[in-house]
Amino acid sequence: MPATKKPAAAQRPFWRKPLEDLTRAQWESLCDGCGRCCLLKLEDEDTGRIYFTDVTCRLFDGQSCRCKDYPGRKAKAPDCVKLTPKRVREIPWLPPTCAYRLVAEGKDLYPWHPLVSGSRESVHDAGMSVRGRAGPNEDEIALPDVLDRIVRWPGMAPRAKKAVKK
To answer: Alpha carbon of 165 to those of 46, 161, 162: distances in Å?
Structure first.
């Protein structure tokens, strides 16, 4: 007898479901560990434009690109934003590479995302994380000096690879 094919819905990766339908474990696994959301952002009050800096949250671990105290982050970093499906759709500063943003927009994950590649290191190997690019943390820099730390790369998506000519 021929093998029975699974229904198409069962073959789809879980991140193709609406954000609201993800389990807590699935939700947490969407984070690729790039650390871009842990960079301080500045907003121009007149234009609403968001500027990324290379200054990190006080709880950011530059090697792992993860929070040093994820469960207790809100107590130690009150400005930390807990992402929810609603907030993901409203927050203008989520990087264009953010898996939460991509899923909310109905897009697929990048090949370097750990859920696609199978490796937590792939986001770093692809140069998509802040590892090696982050500056001081917010406790190590005077507030006026943060303006000198504005960078463009966290708000940019990777360039599409050019077709190889044969």
So the answer is: 46, 12, 9
